[in-house]
């Protein structure tokens, strides 16, 4: 709770001769008299902001509010009894506080003073009684009356908002810095972090909750023993046993690499004919959800979503940015890292100078990956309309011939999951075991150009380089679970890429790994212990308000033709939602059933258990072969602080992790909730109608249901967003407006729709009074936009920020805020931003509606 964040110790009085100010130093927090500020707080000095925070904190202790303009400071008496008692808020009241103010205190009230106060109070009441009818009459035409919210939730919210802000800045020039400047100044990145935001802060709290659960031996769930929870706790305990991992993990890695197929980087005597077989090597590693060269799996058929199909996807790079392969510093660091790992796995002393041969072999792998990166299709070049590429089996065979027999590869990969007695009889007359069975399968290839060119690269690459490449891919996947000496080998490269100088604490690493491995089991425990069940019902109301606002505003969409608008109405109506967690988690039997084939040994090491988990999830994917899709399957677990739209289901999903403060709190002004979680909900809804989502109809099947004229108008309007966001610069690089287009459309449309929903909520529910936060001179409309902006407060290293521009489909958080609010006139109206200021430019981009009814 808020009071625990400050220690009310060592209070020192400081008196100034002019008597205008009195200051108290309490653990570095300076309290001064509150100077009335203008509506933007842009002229307040630092001490004024600190005093506002202090007033709020003091209120949390005393449960009654004294107007700061009347009392410049409080509790400055040497006798701290009132503060000590204040820690128990429930037992505190005006009388108890007054009793603890000593007579030596300047706040001691003598008899004469009491008489004067009573007399003045009686006169004031008389005047109020005389003027009240006139006041009420003057406000009869007012729709709303603002009331100050004085609950602990509102006080702590005020403190949080102000702590994140930099109110000395003009919101009309840089709203992100105004809303999040305090966050940037007050937060510190640990040596193991390259960025920090609310999403990470909340997830860390979720991990702390799980930590308190996992370290306890209890394996009961809803009163009965759960084998899945037992496995999760065994997995966690093995991870925490660093002694065993240090002694045995290396041997496990060596065994796995041997089964994979030997490579010259890790053995002295190597023969391409005896020690390495590409087919068997790829089969072995792909079954463990590691994907050198390419990824194969099962996915929903977008055009027929009651069926699933095989897909091939480009994969297998150590770096997610092509530019990394043209950086000589990264090249040198990668060589040193790979050669150091080779030295360790060979059993050489880590202090012995690595052989030049190993450096050369790792360098060959780096150059091989560089060639692969050159044929990778960039995300922004993957046109959503062309992502659905069904290729004939003969064409796919030609891509892999002669370096890989794709018939044998697919058959061996899927053999355990092919129910020959049913599938083959239904789909063909082929005999059992005929590898041409896949001739009849639909195979999806989102990036065909990559596979068309992969053949030529592999044919020109010596086998020993491919063998070393696959082995190094495995090493990099498993390295986080290896002993400290291996982590030290990676440290220089990691530091260069992300400015990370240390690994996370062991407890945090192990809780996170356990949550990733047993996400639904740990999610069930998290829900049982920490999730407010009433949140589901309240969030459901927000979702329906957002949906209604979108549907009601569709007729005003001037660029969309009537037929397309009608179909959009149907699709929006049929969007389903899933909130908090899947219902099947309420039964321990269901959870145990889900994890029944995942076997964890308490006597194993972390590498062994991680390999078991990887194989378990890859098997779960492959066994979908020939099965109907499960519409209730979640791709996120309950503790995740995120949300998503599933186009093939036409469904929006919000895990429990994101349904909590600061994104949602039922006990604070509703404007903040609509600004934060409301905008997130609307963001996901808009994904159903963005440049990618618009290719899926109300039932989740892919086809172009928009009329040509609407498509043309939509595409024309998207150009404005591409141009706008491409002008934003982070460090030395510009945002890619094409890569981030879908997310920018969703951000802009989401805030517009959520603001509309908020305004309509007030009217539809006849809200006569809205809560005003104490100490914040902001209107409800301003709070809405502040709630949206602070959702994206972040502190990050420059390297991490620039790296995100290449790989992240979201714009950098600062420009998610600035780019959105500068396009919304209602924001400028709320903050009275003059035309032509940064946040109220003359040219605005818009696809989805105006934010209010006009």
According to CATH, the homologous superfamily of the domain at 534-580 and 640-831 is Collagenase (Catalytic Domain)
Please, what is the average pLDDT? 83
In terms of quaternary structure, what is this?
single chain
Radius of gyration: 31 Å
Determine the CATH topology of the domain at 534-580 and 640-831.
Collagenase (Catalytic Domain)
Strand residue content: 5-15%
- Tell the overall outline: globular
Strand order of the largest sheet: 8-9-11-10
* Main sheet record: 4 strands, mixed
Cofactor: Zn(2+)
Domain Peptidase M13 C-terminal: 642-847
Transmembrane segments: 115-136
Domain Peptidase M13 N-terminal: 171-582
Give a brief description:
The chain is of the alpha+beta class and 854 residues long.
Describe the structure.
- The chain is of the alpha+beta class and 854 residues long.
- Among the domains are: 2-108, no CATH class; 163-190, no CATH class; 264-479, Orthogonal Bundle (Neutral endopeptidase, domain 2), CATH 1.10.1380; 534-580 and 640-831, 3-Layer(aba) Sandwich (Collagenase (Catalytic Domain)), CATH 3.40.390.
- The protein contains 32 helices and 18 strands.
- Helix 8 (227-240) runs antiparallel to helix 20 (506-517) and helix 13 (356-375) crosses helix 18 (463-478).
- The two termini are 43 Å apart.
- Mean pLDDT is 83; it is low at 1-49, 59-109, 130-145 and 428-434.
- Residues 642-847 form the Peptidase M13 C-terminal domain.
- Keywords: Hydrolase, Membrane, Metal-binding, Metalloprotease, Protease, Transmembrane, Transmembrane helix, Zinc.
- Belongs to the peptidase M13 family.
